[in-house]
Write a structure and sequence with these properties.
2 domains, 6-stranded antiparallel β-sheet, 4-stranded antiparallel β-sheet
């Protein structure tokens, strides 16, 4: 196996990291189907998922004052909120409770993002300059509404064939059909378009016949190409379906969360230089005036250069190699 530290080409380096973690069969499945499930023994053998779940339950209790009921799901049964209107005619939220902006809730969520297997897969799909667009924890109890099929790439069809976004989802409780699992149309990422009309329907007599429900044990990592058609079945079994979704994007895609300049310095200091890249600190765009433009450029150059040095002089693009990246054209 090639030593990743001895490689300079970004694509070769990304492949070396895939090999380092034994992810070749999952990359092959991802390429063929548009998604893959990496089992706990590969993704997080150190009990990471259990710690994420515990922290998510604590965060939910802090936010709502009610401890989620994992056994019966009574706390989230037929859950309704602002997301209940996502699907026309939905009786309840197809997501359950979607808790946004989880990164700052507990240090374990930093660990969830910095997991080397997750980063290897996100890098393979979206490159070394990939950033976190959002981190959302979904808790779904017994409900009636399914989530219609869609792609995650935030562009009109036709979509580019390469993945501009990807979803890396920590499966925190078992996923299966009765538990309201995620579902896919395998290979649909190659069609480079959004589903339309009846193609979007999940379940029932008129549901898309090509839909495949995912089965994944708690602790798995579900990785999704941004173009693949996916949705979710409603949950019919007691209990909660809990997952942590890290929606990742190439840095020229508008992110769901605005993290630029908002990450505490102590959080940046206790993580590797790549953490700053992932949390959007090397993005210079979005300025409000000339002064802000200069400040954003300086900050972006600082973090991009630190990351390049940490990678042995290799920048987020091959063209950056050993020279400081241009602050206003970092991700052009």
């Amino acid at each position: 196996m090639t030593n990743p530290q001895a490689i300079h080409d970004p694509l070769d380096l990304a492949w070396a990291e895939i090999q380092e973690h034994g992810l070749e069969p999952y990359v092959a499945e991802l390429d063929a189907h548009g998604y893959t499930v990496i089992p706990p023994r590969v993704a997080a053998p150190d009990g990471l998922s259990e710690r994420i779940l515990a922290a998510a339950l604590d965060a939910a209790e802090r936010r709502t004052g009610v401890r989620p009921d994992l056994d019966t799901g009574a706390t989230h049964a037929d859950f309704t909120d602002r997301l209940s209107t996502v699907e026309p005619g939905a009786e309840d939220s197809p997501f359950g409770d979607a808790m946004q902006s989880m990164l700052f809730e507990d240090p374990v969520f930093e660990e969830a993002m910095m997991n080397p297997v997750l980063l290897a897969m996100a890098t393979w799909l979206c490159g070394y300059s990939v950033v976190l667009s959002s981190m959302i924890c979904q808790m779904k109890g017994p409900n009636k509404s399914s989530l219609a099929l869609h792609a995650d790439t935030p562009l009109p069809s036709p979509l580019p064939p390469q993945s501009l976004t990807c979803n890396c989802i920590w499966v925190l409780t078992d996923f299966d059909l009765a538990n309201g699992t995620t579902c896919f149309v395998p290979g649909s990422h190659r069609w480079c378009r959004e589903p339309v009309g009846a193609e979007r329907i999940v379940g029932g007599a008129h549901g898309n016949p090509h839909v495949v429900p995912v089965e994944a044990e708690a602790g798995s990592l579900l990785c999704i190409h941004g173009n693949v058609w996916h949705g979710a079945f409603n949950r019919t079994a007691p209990g909660l379906r809990v997952n942590l979704a890290l929606y990742m994007a190439r840095p020229f895609i508008r992110t769901q969360e605005d993290l630029i300049g908002k990450v505490p310095q102590q959080m940046l200091d206790r993580n590797s230089p790549r953490f700053a890249i992932l949390t959007q600190q090397a993005i210079a765009y979005g300025y409000t005036d000339a002064k802000d433009s200069v400040e954003r450029g300086k900050r972006a150059a600082k973090y991009a250069l630190a990351y390049a040095k940490a990678r042995g002089g290799k920048g987020v693009h091959a063209s950056e190699d050993v020279q400081p990246p241009r602050p206003f054209l970092l991700y052009g």
